[in-house]
Design goal:
two-stranded antiparallel ribbon; alpha+beta; 188 residues; 57% helix; single chain; four-stranded antiparallel sheet
Length: 188
């Protein structure tokens, strides 16, 4: 296959991988009734005048399936961290004992589980649309290469088949990730 066509195929594959990993990291923030430090991953705290991710000012971990513990490296940060967690509107209320914050993750109701499954499906569709858009861009680029006589019609067809196989592979990965997350959410 033509070197330039292969370069665009590799680029499309990298973008598809990035779309799937973005989707996966987005799903890690959806709480499935069990405590996970990833729930607090997007929280930033004012640390000496700069917005700093929570993980850089405190240890964040879990003690059991329902409890997240945040232990700041400086005790003076406790009220700021507590305020930011409340402000993040995650439906979590931290309990401050003067040294650490304990956050109890409430059990999910059946209705909330169904809402989360809908959210997972919507995010999965968004990921698949992103993958298909990457395919479309790659195919358009390959057609342009053919117009510019950089590759032949046969090479274009062959390259587009490779791009389609990549698309199918990454769409299947996104579906598998969705199914696993839905099962996790629905598991009581």
């Amino acid at each position: 296959m033509n070197e330039e066509a292969q370069m665009y195929i590799d680029e499309a594959e990298e973008k598809m991988k990035a779309a799937v990993s973005h989707y996966e990291s987005g799903l890690s923030k959806i709480r499935a009734g069990k405590a996970s430090p990833a729930i607090l991953a997007d929280i930033k705290v004012d640390y000496y005048g700069s917005e700093t991710p929570l993980s850089q000012v405190a240890n964040v971990g879990t003690t059991d399936a329902r409890t997240i513990v945040v232990q700041p490296w400086e005790k003076a940060m406790l009220p700021k961290i507590e305020k930011e967690i409340l402000k993040a509107n995650l439906g979590l209320t931290p309990v401050n004992n003067g040294e650490i914050l304990r956050i109890t993750v409430p059990a999910l109701t059946e209705e909330r589980r169904k809402q989360l499954v809908k959210q997972v499906k919507a995010e999965g569709e968004n990921a698949k649309v992103a993958i298909r858009n990457i395919r479309k861009d790659a195919n358009n680029t390959l057609k342009q290469l053919e117009k510019d006589n950089t590759i032949t019609e046969d090479e274009n067809k062959q390259a587009q088949e490779v791009v389609q196989k990549l698309t199918d592979k990454f769409v299947a990965q996104a579906d598998k990730i969705s199914e696993a997350k839905e099962a996790e959410i629905l598991k009581v």
